[in-house]
Amino acid sequence: MDERVPPLRPSNHGRKPPSVTAIFFILLFFLGIGVVLFLKSPLSEIRNIRIEGNELVSDREVLETIRLVKGTSFFHWDAGQAEEALTTLPEVRDASVTKSFPSAVRVRLNEVERVGYWSRGDRLYPLLSDGSVLREDPWEGEVDRPVIRGLNKGEVLISVAKGLSRLSPGVIDEISEIRPGQDDTYSDLVKVYTRRDHLIHVRARDFGEKVKYYAHFKNRPPGTLNLLESTWYVPGTQHREP
Questions:
Q1: Domain limits at 106?
Q2: Which H helix or E strand runs over 29?
Q3: CA distance 174 to 145
Q4: Is 16 inside any structural domain?
Q5: What percent of the chain has pLDDT over 70?
Q6: Which residues does the UniProt record annotate as the domain POTRA (predicted)?
Q7: Euclidean distance between the first and final Cα of the chain, in Å?
């Protein structure tokens, strides 16, 4: 009987399996190269910038403040630092800056309310609800809020500004000008001129609390409304100061 001899097969005893560690480092190497290429490519750049809630601050000023332009690296630009920078602007109460991967930034501002316009010479400057005046930014737009003339005292101006912020839009629309009262009894007396030829006498400290009652008097004939310790109305046309 013929004996069958099994075929010779190569021995595997001398071959080692691929090292898991080596494979890991190879993959890590190529992954690192991919990340570097991505960070240097246009795919990692900010391409969509959205700014909301700004009326007093222009888009350009916002972008300059947060140092952001299209093409800025999405990963290198810090949204937290941008928020801090925006809150240093006098017009901004607070700000929210968010990044959305891979290329979008949204900036939302909550501005201090503009309540009037402070007059100096022939120029008008925005008056904010905290009493600050934007003296570096003369107003060029529509005059849609009261004009404050001759009020240069800090506390009186601040009280009037805060008072204006408490009034309803309907009452605000009725007021055309606010001037100092020049009264020996009340050092903070102011005179409020309305678009219906009414003159209101009121103390600056009581401005927000008492001027709101003008809504109940506005349909009366021209005259003077005194809102002091007591309230009384005197008919008669009042001539506005030049």
A1: 44-111
A2: helix 20-39
A3: 9
A4: no
A5: 80
A6: 44-114
A7: 137
